[in-house]
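Render this sequence as a predicted structure.
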Amino acid sequence: MAKKSSSCCLIAFLVAIVLLIGTVAAGYFGGNYALKKYLGDEGEILQLGINNWGDLFNFLLGANELLKGKPEIEDENKPNQDNLNSAQNQLENSIVGYNPQTSFFDKQTLVFKTPLMLTGGQLAALIDKELDSLKDEVQIEFNITQIKLEVDPENNDYCTITMTFAISKDNLISPIEKQLGNFASLITSSLGDYVYITSVNRYVAIEGKMEVDTTYNQSNLFVGNSSKNAVNQKIVDLLVTLFGAENEDDLNAKFGNIIIEAVNNVGNVSFALVANESAVDKEISYIVFDNHNNSALIQKLAITAEINLDDYKDLDESNKNILSNIKSQANNMLTTLATTQLSETTTPTLIQVQDIIDSITQEHNSFVAAYQNDPATTNLTSYQNHINSLVALFL
């Protein structure tokens, strides 16, 4: 995940909301000069429709309601402990040499022995865990409270994602009081524990990379629990100006980039819609991660790379060292395969690599059978030679 960029984007969103309320209040309680100075004289104050004291208080009260509202979120889309546990189990089953202490979103080369399929709630749990690890690096506390995936049943290149952030009330009171002064209580008196911000975008997967689908006309951006509230629309319109976005869709796409930055570093991204075994009439939407290259070859070689040396304790010391070296070389080759495109015209060619990995698979099976028959007579020379040959192809 691009930690700094994502964090700054969220913080800027919060600051924009606070400044928005402060700008409107300061503008009207100060003779309207501050608002006009900030937004300009033209356009009737950006068509806010605030023309008198009554409109102003209605706007402030409406903003108050939005800031304390909470959208309805289903358990399957929450970053709860069950989703975190199941997500980490999926990581262990799908990633070669997975280390639970390592961030899933760090820029690194992950090697998948099988495609990693995550639900929205599982992805939310992993992102929220990452954000929690950054809490000492940012001034404003925020969390992911929802990621809902909806893969298009007609075309699984597309997935609509509803993402909700929660910003702590404790981080809001001080900046609101600074902006509003004596009028701060209009906003802060009835705030909930968190302010919820929801972004809805459709994404498209193109050649393994996820992008916001800018042609989608049902994207949405709202505060609290109402996407249709008139005051919410006024807030969104001002946020567009504050962020220098072209329009609401452009602003929402910028928030969509938070998800994109998180997942595109991980691996080849796609979407899947799979029938739920426990519910006949329901399908589950997944975001899927795989190697950028050579997944079929990696799956075969992963058997060697994940040899458990403790299973072969009865080998003599020389053979134990050879087996450890075989395992180490195979692990290194997995990363090479994941980052290398192979074809009939590359050096080495795809056929050359396939043939040697097939031979390594056969050698592994022969080794296991020989060890089970008599560990003392096991010979690893041929197994080692084939691994050496694979390494030599890429030198």
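Summary. The CA atoms of residues 155 and 224 lie 31 Å apart. The longest strand covers residues 194-206.
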